[in-house]
């Protein structure tokens, strides 16, 4: 089963990074105030990117590496691997995590 690392742009301009198996459902949780404590305080504005990983372990390692980056580097990562989809969502696929 694939796991995903996702990057959200929050209302205060920050970027939240998390992992899940269903990005749409997890985004809905964050948007409704039932996600992480951070996104309850700073609700998401949009999904910046999703990165596909082979399993939870790979997704967790990728999440850790991304969280070490500056906001500017996270935005550059999202742009580098992103393909503009319909609507405001941007998705990216990483072949190897």
Give the arrangement of secondary structure elements.
Blueprint: E1 3-10, E2 15-20, H1 23-31, H2 37-41, E3 44-53, H3 56-67, H4 71-81, E4 82-84, E5 90-92
Antiparallel strand pairs: 1-2, 1-3, 4-5
Mean pLDDT: 86
- Form type: globular
Strand proportion: 25-35%
Number of strand elements: 5
| Biggest pleated sheet | 3 strands, antiparallel
What's the tally of helices? 4
Strand order of the largest sheet: 2-1-3
What is the distance, rounded to the nearest whole angstrom, between the alpha carbons of the first and last residues?
Answer: 14 Å
Q: What structural category characterises the helix and strand content? A: alpha+beta
Structural features, described:
It is a single chain. The chain is an alpha+beta fold. 38% of the residues lie in helices and 31% in strands. The chain is built from 4 helices and 5 strands. The protein has helices at residues 23-31, 37-41, 56-67, 71-81, and strands at 3-10, 15-20, 44-53, 82-84, 90-92. The strands form 2 sheets. It has a 3-stranded antiparallel β-sheet, sandwiched between helices. It has a two-stranded antiparallel sheet with strand order 4-5. Strand 4 and strand 5 (90-92) form a beta hairpin. The chain is globular, with a radius of gyration of 12 Å. The two termini are 14 Å apart. The model is unreliable at 83-96 (pLDDT under 50).
């Amino acid at each position: 089963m694939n796991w995903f690392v996702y990057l959200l742009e929050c209302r205060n301009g920050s970027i939240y990074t998390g992992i899940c198996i269903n990005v749409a459902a997890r985004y809905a949780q964050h948007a409704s105030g039932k996600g992480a404590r951070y996104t309850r305080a700073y609700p998401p504005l949009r999904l910046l990117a999703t990165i596909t990983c082979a399993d939870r372990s790979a997704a967790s390692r990728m999440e850790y590496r991304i969280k070490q980056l500056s906001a500017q580097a996270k935005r550059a990562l999202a742009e580098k691997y992103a393909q503009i989809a319909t609507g405001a969502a941007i998705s990216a696929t990483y072949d190897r995590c």
